Amino acid sequence: MRTDSSPGTLPAREHLPAAPAGTPVLDVVVPVYNEEKDLQPCVRRLHEHLARTFPYAFRITIADNASTDSTPGVAARLAAEIPEVAVFRLEQKGRGRALRAVWSASDAPVLAYMDVDLSTDLNALLPLVAPLISGHSDLAIGSRLARSSRVVRGPKREFISRAYNLILRGSLQARFSDAQCGFKAIRRDVARVLLPLIEDTGWFFDTEMLVLAERAGLRIHEVPVDWVDDPDSTVHIVKTATDDLKGVWRVGRALATGSLPLDRLTRPFGDDPRDREIEDVPRGLARQLVGFCVVGGLSTLFYLLLYSGFRVFTGSQVANALALLVSAVANTAANRRLTFGVRGRAGAVRHQAQGLVVFGIGLALTSGSLAALSAATSEPAHSTELAVLIAANLAATVLRFLLFRAWVFPDRREAAATAGATYPTTQFRAGDVADGSWPDATVQLLPVRPHDTDVRDFR
Asked: Cβ distance 409 to 336 under 8 Å?
């Protein structure tokens, strides 16, 4: 997964306008490696279906992954006979490499791909790309695991597919249902921003693309498909599964350490209703309050357990200080990651130092409460001490949230605006090719080089 650059701001979704003459709206890529037998019937069947059912101009691109049989010759003959067929030759293998190369070079505003065996019923193709043409969604995938899908395949492949998607849900918190179905589409303006972040060049390319898209807040449309397994498939299941698991580990580690600039993949104001500012309601306040309350409740239980344990062998003041110190460190770390969404190690020491200052204020409140209790009665009951500490901790919790939000973890965009920061931008047309011939919404891309300092990033 590439972490050395950030492509910038995603364009607003808009319905694609009518295309200029000769410009295809849809480019369907068919990656092939040594498919001399299946290539011709596949392409002819796909072309016939598109010509009969698809209401826009289209192109079928054969992406030859360094085939060593007669596949290049078959592809060349198809391109010569059918005007809507093109050939793209690569000298290296890898489905992900082929899709990246063809999608990056294509001038069609909607990009799709499907496996050469056409295991997926082609009647799902128009429902797949329609949400992208209308501007409703950013990506679309076919799903064999949807409730209404109709799938014919052996128990071995069924088990592997379901197990893999369970692994994705458990390890990467993926919410899409089917990562590896060879039937997907993406808007080209989104692909321009997303593809530079994808590292894999093989079968894991699909999964990595979907995980990053989901984490970046893109909308993924799922289409239930009718799917019949190809018994002559050349996919090596064991090797593919091993490579996929390695990819899951790599992506999971990158997400956990915060090394991906996904926070910079944001849509402009007005595209997502959740991004809109509501008068007198600070941005993200509701979500942060919920997260802070959950973390605070668990921290309070942790603190009480620590205090009860320390109280066995020391006085109330020392036990309170030790319990509050340990729970404060854990509380700051949990709020940093879960409540305020800060990932990575950058700024962690400073955040903990600021958290200790907040801890000092909480210590003063709770210690003062204990001192007042001791002054009121010489030997207070343990239950009374706990009740006083709970009340003091509630007051300290409110103050802690306010300090965390305003001082320790301030909103980076607000801080950047306050500082009057400006950023160099390059103007592109959303959906344009290099010659700028496609009329669509304007998008600003923010060039970030490996050693740039982003003034928005206070982490």
From this structure: yes
Three-state SS at 404: helix
Whole-number Cα distances in Å, 186 to 88, 195, 204, 363? 19, 11, 17, 53
Tokens (6 digits) for 283: 């941005």
How many other C-beta atoms can be found within 10 angstroms of the C-beta atom of residue 310?
18
CB 90 within 8 A of CB 66: yes
Backbone torsions φ then ψ of 236, nearest 5 degrees: -85, 105
d(CA 351, CA 346): 9
User: Around Cβ 379, how many Cβ atoms within 10 Å?
Assistant: 6
Report d(CA 189, CA 443) in Å as an integer: 9
Q: Measure the CA–CA gap between 15 and 262, rounded to whole angstroms.
A: 25
Hey, what are 176's tokens? Answer: 């899409």
pTM, two decimals, is: 0.60
Judge whether 206 counts as a catalytic residue.
Answer: yes
Distance of alpha carbon 49 from alpha carbon 178, whole angstroms: 25
- Convert the pLDDT of each residue in 378-412 to its tens digit: 788 888 888 888 888 788 778 878 888 888 888 65
At 146, which amino acid appears?
A: A
Strands 58-65 and 85-90: parallel
Q: By three-state DSSP, how is residue 405 classified? A: helix
Burial 420-433 (b: 16+ CB within 10 A, else e): eeeeeeeebbbbbe
Scan for tokens 């899908």, then name that residue: 149
Q: Catalytic one among 38, 115, 189, 206?
A: 206
CB neighbours of residue 275 within 10 Å = 13
- Residue 93, classified by CB atoms within 10 Å of its CB into exposed (0-12), middle (13-18) or buried (19+), is middle
> What is residue 265's predicted lDDT score, i.e. its pLDDT?
63
